[in-house]
């Protein structure tokens, strides 16, 4: 894990944890955004229309500044949005991407207090050495370097109050989600429960320890992969300790002088095989594929360092979901419609118009989205494919017919499985990778 420079970032002695305090921080942010709009319209009157790029930059900065003070699920949302490069203005992508590695860390005294509360000892008594300055701070926790018995360790400490604030944070963003995603009716609660359950799991480091050890053990035979060891004796619900792993974050590696397309393809193949093996063999998957969760070491191995977000893939979802990727089913209207019904995309009370609309919409989407599965090799740097993926996202965001219909459809499992694939596609695109699609079968 490369050391990040957080010395220039102001440390935090407290984090708002009460619902009222967190809502107040969002209101404060909203006032700043409102001021940006007033200034924008004032400048527009005086100087004429110069576009919204400056407004986007100001709003993105103020929104991110507010979220990074809240941390937790509020900042996690920004992290998730930073991966959706096709929908957000570039200014938002750039600001929200900072949530992957660069947020204000907790102060040294607060870090010591958290260690003392969970282990009954100060960090310098628990470990041989412990650096109180964080080397990496993200949405739910921050990492400290330590050592014990000659082992170099990474100690991840969870921010105070993160788990307690998830419910109230989601309640605050619900109205915006309903509007943005065109959600209607009581059936939408299943989606919010799914997100809330996954976020709660991410705050349980005992659960993360179990997942980390399980997946590392199951995937250690995959070529080009490397996993840290985890240490239960120095871990608990709010602290998790693992080996310190050397390397560059994936996004930094792509921009480094060591990067070339051949190496990118090699790393991309490891990444693809890792995900396909998890999904098709383990029936569970690390469902948070963003650059901050992977390192590239000096031997160009892919180092997986975070298993907080694991999605189980139930059989009754797995089979129809991947049946949709088969060309023979895409070309069979009766079979395709049956699969959409199994996946709750077509609903029992749909009108003929709704059935026709959503069948056509999802057929177009699946023909594009499943292209990688229809060839022996697929080039994720293909500009035509990537432009089509970008336009697909915009279609869902801007389709006027879709906005008039009830968007509350589809199995709850779509949320994290689709997030996994979109994130994976983005990483492979950034790597410029051409991968052998069924290569993972060599390791089953």
Give a structural overview.
With 444 residues, the protein is an alpha+beta fold. Among the domains are: 19-100, no CATH class; 314-412, no CATH class. Helix content is 54%, strand content 11%. The chain has helices spanning 19-47, 53-70, 72-82, 90-97, 108-119, 123-126, 162-181, 189-202, 205-219, 250-254, 261-282, 315-323, 327-330, 333-342, 352-369, 383-398, 400-404, 414-431; strands at 129-130, 136-137, 141-148, 151-158, 225-226, 239-243, 248-249, 284-286, 294-296, 302-304, 310-312, 377-379, 434-436. The strands form four sheets. Strands 1, 2, 3, 4 and 6 form a five-stranded antiparallel beta sheet that branches. A four-stranded mixed beta sheet has the order 5-10-9-7.
Descriptive keywords:
444 residues; alpha+beta; 5-stranded antiparallel β-sheet; 4-stranded mixed β-sheet; 18 helices; 13 strands; 54% helix; disordered N terminus
Number of alpha- plus pi-helical segments? 18
The chain-level structural class is alpha+beta
Poorly predicted sequence stretches spanning 5 or more consecutive residues: 2-9, 29-50
Distance between the termini: 29 Å
Content of β-strand:
5-15%
List how many beta strands DSSP finds: 13
Q: Radius of gyration over alpha carbons? A: 23 Å
Output mean pLDDT. Answer: 80
- Shape by Cα distribution: globular
Profile the largest sheet: 5 strands, antiparallel
Helix content: 40-55%
Briefly characterize the structure.
The protein is an alpha+beta fold. Helices cover 54% and strands 11% of the residues. Among the domains are: 19-100, no CATH class; 314-412, no CATH class.
